[in-house]
Known about the structure:
The chain has a domain at 1-36. The protein is built from one helix and no strands. The protein has one helix at 56-60. The model has no long low-confidence stretch (mean pLDDT 82).
Amino acid sequence: MQTVRVSEKTGSDGVLHLRIPVGEPEAEYEAVIVLQPSRAGDAPEALESPGWPPGYFKETFGSITEESFVRPPQGELPKAVELE
């Protein structure tokens, strides 16, 4: 596994096309893509991290007022193994 870092610009259609030379024709690869705007000012305003619409949490927090709606007990975590 190798890490390849590229910096590309989206087209006028808003689509990012990646061309990454790997040097091996007709080979299969699995790729994991992490998109990050190159500058903080370039971040899209349509979504909040990690992809929620703007104001989503302010609008929905506390919206369920039914008293029977409760979070069930989550149980206990197992005790951590002590290191010597």
